[in-house]
Design a protein that fits this description.
single chain; alpha/beta; 7 helices
Length: about 220
């Protein structure tokens, strides 16, 4: 693999109750493979803060760590996938992110969220106003390369197929649990392969979409 593949850094966004430490196996794997990897710990991490607030923390972290123009790849795990999507779809991230990898993210919600009244958790309830709004213009993500990984054995995103997206490359992995999706060797290989994946042949169309977004 040409070393030029690795010149774009990777930013990792964790899920609820997690910190950047949950990414240690993934971060080590990607670093050994040649990428520069950055991970932030969002505060609070217990669902009290709305997803919009956490997404702004991602935006601030990216600017502080990479500057205001450096392109990068974005990986969002669990709730972090929704945080990442808000950054992409509402905070201008589409003009900078090259690839977005969503891992076990509740794109259509999880029934487990029905048991909480915490602001960020309520937003993950199926058919929540937040998800309804975010999914109404989900096709703007076609401006970048998108990958979604999920497992049938996910007991936190229920039903687990709510982690699928209606676009990009969607792949079910034979991984035993939610958290193993950023630890299991099969998952680590799949994530690295997504980051190495060459842009599609219609790269010009993708770039035009990015310019259209930047100019709106």
């Amino acid at each position: 693999m040409n070393k030029s593949v690795f010149h774009i850094p990777v930013v990792l966004v964790h899920g609820i109750w997690n910190t950047a430490a949950i990414f240690n196996p993934l971060k080590d794997y990607l670093t050994r493979s040649g990428w520069r990897v950055y991970a932030l710990s969002m505060i609070p991490n217990n669902g009290d803060a709305p997803i919009e607030t956490l997404a702004q923390q991602v935006a601030d972290f990216v600017d502080a760590s990479l500057g205001s123009e450096q392109p990068f790849h974005l990986i969002g795990f669990s709730m972090g996938g929704l945080v990442s999507r808000y950054y992409l779809q509402r905070l201008g991230g589409l003009t900078r992110v090259e690839k977005f990898v969503a891992i076990c993210a509740p794109h259509r919600g999880t029934v487990l969220a029905l048991g909480s009244n915490r602001a960020g958790v309520v937003q993950m309830q199926p058919h929540s106003p937040f998800l309804t709004d975010l999914n109404e213009d989900i096709h703007c993500l076609k401006a970048i390369q998108v990958f979604a990984f999920w497992t049938l054995f996910d007991l936190l995103i229920l039903p687990p197929w709510h982690s699928q997206l209606p676009l990009g490359r969607v792949q079910r992995l034979n991984v035993a649990s939610h958290n193993k999706m950023i630890q299991d060797p099969e998952a680590l290989r799949a994530i690295a392969s997504a980051l190495k994946c060459l842009p599609p042949e219609n790269t010009d169309a993708l770039q035009k979409s990015r310019l259209d977004i930047r100019n709106t």
